[in-house]
Amino acid sequence: MKLFSVRRVDELGRIVLPMELRQKLMITANTPLDIFIDNNGNVVLRKTTPYCSVCGETKNLTELGQKNAYLCSGCIGDIKNLYL
Fold first, then answer.
1. CA nearest 51: which of 68, 34, 67, 33?
2. What is the C-alpha separation between 72 and 20, in angstroms, rounded?
3. Beta strand extents in the chain (DSSP E only)
4. Is residue 53 within 8 Å of residue 61, measured between CB atoms?
5. What is the per-residue pLDDT for 59?
6. What pLDDT score does 27 carry?
7. Separation CA 52–CA 63 (nearest Å)
8. Residue 77, helix vs strand vs coil
9. Is the pLDDT reported for residue 15 higher than 80?
10. pLDDT higher for 2 or 41?
């Protein structure tokens, strides 16, 4: 594991990710990140993998507006069938 730098948390609880790290991982403004604690007690940041808000599928997704919410083609079909 490579240490990029040491950063301090500011008074509002924020940290700044180093530019080199953001560039390497293609993290830009408004990139959604998962934040969790692993089994060893480490805080982990991970780029969010989009998934269907209904069933959890990760393929054939359609984004709902600009809200980082998605539906898969199967659930879209099921919803259409309910209303047609």
1. 68
2. 34
3. 33-37, 43-47, 61-63, 70-72
4. no
5. 93
6. 92
7. 9
8. helix
9. yes
10. 41
Quote the radius of gyration of the chain (alpha carbons, Å).
18
Q: From CA 16, how far away is CA 7, in angstroms rounded?
A: 7
Show the CA angle centred on residue 73, arms to residues 67 and 74, nearest 5°.
Answer: 120
* CA-angle at 49, arms to 79 and 55, nearest 5°: 30
pLDDT of residue 19: 92
- Residue 72 identity (one-letter amino acid): C
Token duo for residue 52? 């269907």
Cα–Cα distance measured from residue 29 to residue 36, given in angstroms and rounded to the nearest whole number = 20
Q: Identify the pLDDT of residue 5.
A: 84
**What's at 53, amino acid-wise?**
S
What is the per-residue pLDDT across 19-53, written as a single tens digit (0 to 9) for each? 988 998 899 988 888 899 999 999 998 888 888 98
